[in-house]
Specification:
The complex is a heterodimer of chains A (about 325) and B (about 325).
Chain A (H helix, E strand, L loop, with lengths): L2 H29 L8 H28 L4 H6 L10 H47 L5 H11 L5 H14 L5 H9 L2 H14 L2 H9 L4 H12 L1 H17 L2 H6 L8 H10 L9 H21 L1 H13 L1
Helix pairs in contact in A: 4-7, 4-8, 4-11, 4-14, 5-8, 8-11, 9-10, 11-15, 13-14
Chain B lengths: L14 H8 L1 H36 L2 E5 L7 E5 L3 H8 L1 H34 L2 H11 L7 H12 L5 H8 L12 H26 L3 H9 L4 H12 L1 H16 L3 H6 L13 H10 L4 H26 L5
Antiparallel strand pairs in B: 1-2
Helix pairs in contact in B: 2-14, 3-14, 4-5, 4-8, 4-11, 8-11, 9-10, 11-14, 13-14
Classes of the chains: A mainly alpha (about 325), B mainly alpha (about 325).
């Protein structure tokens, strides 16, 4: 790297930093109410209230983090909100080796159901959203009504009918029993349609058609690429709801080798006091481990799911 | 709003192309291709939504009865709409719905009030600060329901949890799993888990209000509290109606939390504690699938009717 190049890079960075500072100053200016500052007492009151609410939101998670570093005895007798003797690695080891490492299997299953389910769901939903938004075909109105109508009926009420059907066709207690329902999400279709409405200019598609591109090619090379934000949002929301699901796997799955993390933890907790071995540390460590991937994923992709939640609910 | 076929040909395209685009056969072909993109979803929808409901309807017309002295095993008998009339008369089922709705009428206002408070507080501080607190408030939302419930059950637990210790220190003896405390324990857990999501919706609505209105009120000498109460709250009324409706629908299908609490308080959290639990145990404990199917349909219709009424009230349908 030559000196001038280096200079250029530094300038770019400095510029960016300056711009950020300016933006922040502007934001702060926006926030300051005209007609003088508010009295200090009310500002303090607001900050105290915010701090208390933060404490309420975060303290239980803090307790969990502290607890997984303790052994069985310290869990019972030491202060719950502060560390005692560090025993985290032993707990970790126990979680990963208990019952031949079934926990790793559950984690893999959860990732499979959430990841594959969300990926397929995104593809299907974006295609359907594109079709509902940009084409007119007989029955389109009815399909749209069905989409909106069915996301008003909550999933738990469909689970038993689904179980009866899957029992009939022999899908119960297979991976597909959990995967197939996650592929189809009317809410995702609706979300995808809203994004297509806003993100894909009709002119571009028309131009591609005139240039002789086929419909499939237009979808994969133009629509899919312009829909990155929309697809990411759909994927994320689907991933999170798949990761969190409990009732469907509980109903469908029998063999513990196909279970999800939630189901496994539920089972461990149920037999916690059985047979002499206390599984408390196991359940707690497992619980924390099952939060981490999801939390990291969600914090990294905040931007997407926040817009999704607001968009989806403000209709 | 869809513009599909009719559009004047841009300059530079030959007459050939525009003629082709106008031909009706080509138009049908494009409609077919367009429908093709929706086909995977529609097929799946048929298989995951329509067929199961139809099959459940069919299944609900039958009942399993043990024949004679229970020697010949159980046989399936056609019972017509008996399962439905039984469902409509089943006191335990309607009691579970009533129980959940009563609970909802207390927990949901508390949760929404808290969410509204959070949103209003966030709205009074600088954007940057607000974003930081917003993330903290969303921490519980990022935790899977089952894990959150497990966590709170340990926090409540007299053996392990710090809460009872603290209360003992203050001279209050407490048992969070006692029958009269159970709803409070569960309400707190649900509030903790759900408040962030609701805050997000309300805060989103609040940020959409033009700032000038507040500035004008400030210039007129209104206090921040007065502005919040008289301007901000009325502006987010729509969001509040929406969040309360979503919460009621969610509450009607509550299952995970009571199922877990059943592990510690089986005599309070009975098998017919909530409607979905009732259905679940009818199916997998009593093996009365026909009856469970009928109850599912009754409940789905009830929730569907409520949601539909709500949707009609708050939205004009936009195809």
């Amino acid at each position: 790297m030559t000196l001038t190049e280096q200079d250029a890079t530094t300038t770019v960075f400095r510029d960016r930093r300056r711009r950020r500072a300016q933006r922040r100053a502007a934001e702060d200016r926006d926030e300051r109410p005209p007609g003088g500052r508010r009295p200090a007492s009310s500002r303090v009151l607001v900050l105290v209230a915010l701090a208390l609410l933060t404490l309420y939101s975060v303290a239980p998670v803090w307790w969990l983090i502290v607890s997984v570093t303790k052994d069985q005895r310290d869990l019972l007798y030491s202060n719950g909100l502060w560390f005692a003797e560090l025993n985290f690695l032993d707990n970790l080891d126990q979680v990963f080796t208990y019952n031949d490492g079934i926990f790793v299997r559950w984690m893999g299953n959860s990732l499979l159901y959430a990841g594959v389910g969300a990926a397929v769901c995104t593809l299907i939903s974006v295609a359907a959203g594109y079709s509902l938004s940009r084409f007119s075909w007989p029955g389109r109105q009815a399909a749209m009504a069905a989409v909106i109508g069915s996301f008003l009926i909550p999933g738990a009420m469909l689970t038993l009918p689904l179980y009866l059907l899957f029992a009939e066709v022999g899908l119960v207690d297979s991976v597909w029993a959990v995967l197939i329902p996650t592929f189809i999400s009317p809410f995702s279709v609706y979300l995808a349609k809203v994004y297509v409405d806003g993100a894909i200019p009709e002119e571009i598609i028309e131009a591609a058609r005139i240039d002789g591109a086929g419909e499939v090619r237009i979808f994969f090379q133009i629509v899919a690429r312009m829909m990155t934000t929309g697809s990411a949002t759909v994927f994320l929301l689907s991933f999170v709801s798949n990761w969190n699901q409990f009732f469907l796997p509980l109903t469908m799955l029998r063999g513990e080798d196909k279970w999800t993390l939630s189901l496994g933890l539920y089972y461990w907790n149920a037999k916690r006091d059985e047979a002499g071995t206390d599984l408390t540390a196991l359940v707690l460590t497992g619980a924390l481990l099952s939060i981490i991937p999801l939390a990291l994923f969600m914090i990294a992709m905040q931007r997407y799911w926040r817009t999704g939640v607001t968009l989806g609910s403000l209709k | 709003m869809t513009i599909t076929v009719t559009k004047s040909a841009p300059a530079g395209t030959g007459p050939d192309a525009s003629a082709r685009r106008r031909s009706p056969r080509w138009r049908t072909l494009r409609a077919a291709k367009g429908a093709g993109f929706a086909a995977p979803f529609l097929l799946g929808f048929l298989f995951v939504f329509v067929v199961p409901v139809g099959y459940a309807l069919y299944e609900s017309l039958f009942s399993e009865r043990s024949s004679g002295l229970g020697i010949g095993g159980r046989e399936r008998v056609f019972v017509g709409f008996d399962n439905f009339s039984r469902g409509f008369e089943d006191g335990a089922f309607w009691l579970s719905i009533g129980r959940v709705l009563t609970f909802a009428s207390i927990q949901i206002p508390v949760m929404l009030l808290l969410a509204l408070t959070m949103a209003l507080l966030l709205d009074t501080v600088a954007t940057r600060t607000a974003h930081r607190y917003r993330l903290a408030f969303l921490v519980p939302y990022m935790i899977p329901g089952i894990v959150g419930t497990l966590m709170w059950m340990y926090l409540y637990s007299p053996r392990l949890g710090p809460i009872t210790d603290v209360l003992d220190g203050l001279g209050i003896s407490s048992n969070f799993f006692a029958s009269e405390m159970l709803w409070v324990s569960m309400g707190n857990l649900l509030t903790w888990n759900g408040v962030g999501f609701n805050m997000l919706i309300i805060y989103g609505a609040l940020r959409a209000v033009p700032r000038e209105i507040f500035d004008a009120a400030r210039v007129d000498g209104a206090s921040e509290f007065r502005i919040a109460m008289s301007i901000k709250v009325p502006y987010v009324r729509g969001a509040l109606v929406l969040t309360s409706m979503l919460s009621i629908i969610g509450m009607l299908q509550i299952f995970n939390e009571p199922l877990l609490f059943r592990q510690v308080a089986p005599e309070t959290v009975t098998k017919s504690y909530t409607p979905i639990m009732f259905i679940y145990f009818q199916a997998f404990d009593s093996n009365d699938y026909g009856y469970a199917a009928a109850l599912s349909i009754i409940l789905a219709m009830l929730v569907g009717a409520v949601s539909f009424a709500f949707y009609k009230l708050t939205n004009r349908p936009q195809p």
